[in-house]
Each structure stands twice: as structure tokens, then as C-alpha cells.
Amino acid sequence: MDSAPEFIEILKVLSRHEVEFILVGGLAAIVQGAPVLTFDVDIVFLKTAENLPRLLAALQEIDARYLDPAGRHIVPDAEKLASFRMHQLITSLGPLDVMEKIGTEMSYADLVHDTQISEVAGVKVRVLGLEKIILSKEQADRDKDRATLPLLRRILRLKQEGSGGE
Amino acid sequence: MSHPADVPAADEASTESEPLQPHVWEGDDDHVIFWMLSLTPTQRVEVAQNFVQGVMMLRNGLRS
Predict the structure, then answer these.
(1) Do A119 and B56 touch (CB under 8 A)?
(2) With a CB-CB cutoff of 8 Å, which residues 82-121 of chain A face chain B?
(3) What is the domain range of residue A44?
(4) Considering the entire predicted model, what is its pTM?
(5) Following DSSP, what letter does each residue of A73-115 receive, concatenated?
(6) How many domains does chain A have?
(7) A-B Cβ pairs (cutoff 8 Å, strict)
(8) How many domains, chain B?
């Protein structure tokens, strides 16, 4: 990865293709007000017959290909989107992780009730709530997830106390 | 190297000072948190975008 990811442009492409997705991970935490660093966009997509072609069209527009240590050029297609649960992609706009589920088996349907619609650069984006972001990072339990948990919990507490400026 | 009797050398000062305290979020970090929360979602993403671009510029500069 030699150029910075274009967060807003990725969201615009997904929106333009009417992809139903939830923004999760580090960028979701940033939208929720967390001063954290991320280098990719993570989304959970709705796995339906209507949504998969939209997602595929969006991925094709940004020349998505799988991150492959062997350097092979493998592009997502309808079959892969329908069968694989995790798509770690490199695109012309930067890294994009497309997931069917996060944490311990939390799908779009499980998460959608804990989301909010935020407007980012004119794009309405469904963003995972901070509580569920924390839960997903607790369940993922990687070093980088554990490192941000104290900060995310503090922000959640500030928001719940009404002192978070929102 | 000599130094005035009432000014400890750096290594002496470090052994005599208070032990390091564990980091707590309820400190200076609150300024950053409140500032970030005062921004709109668009502005928050732009902050992240600019920061990542800076990191990538540094990284690419160090490579070349």
C-alpha cells in the first residue's frame, strides 16, 4: 500500500451503487468520534440476491482484487461474494475489507438495529454503534483491537453521560 | 562531567523521582476526545484521512 486510502470516495462508490452495508471497525469508530487511526474501510454487507450484484458492481468500479501474499490477481465475482465470508481487498481507492459477519457471527441482520445513519460528505452511511464496535473488538480479541478498547469505552461513557458534545 | 551540587545529574534525578504512573485516559487525552466529538462526522473522517495521508507520505518518503 503506497497511497493513502480514500475513505470518503470508497463510501461514495458504495452509496452510488446502493449497496446495503454497515460501516464497522476503525472508520466506524472515527465517525462515532473516536480519535483512532485506521488504514482501511471495513464493511459488513447484507447478503441477499439483490444486494450482491450491487456490491459486485461497486467493487468492479474501484478495481477490487484480493489481497494475496503470492501476488496473484484475483478479483471478486458473484460466486466468491456468495460463498466467502471475508473479502480482504485492495482497490484503486485503498484497502477495503468486505465481511459477511464480524466478531462471533454477527451478521448485517444482527447488527442493523445497533446502527445509526450518519452523513459523511453528503453520503448517508449506516454506521455501527459504539457499543457494538466495542463488542466486536472484544470478540475479535487481536492486539490492535485490545489497544483501542480503553479509549472506545471512555468515549462511550462520555456519550452516555451526555458530556460527549453530541 | 561535573554539575552544580544542588542539581542532580539526569540519571540521579530519574532514580530519585516518583515512579512512573500507569497511563490513564482521563487526562490530556480528554482534550483530543472532546475536540473530536465536537466535529461533524464528515470532519472526523477528514481528520482521519489527512492523518493517514501524512503517515503514508512519511512512510513513502522514508522508503525513497
Answers:
(1) no
(2) 118-121
(3) 7-158
(4) 0.84
(5) -----HHHHHH-SEEEEEETTEEEEEESEETTTEEHHHHGGGE
(6) 1
(7) 77
(8) 1
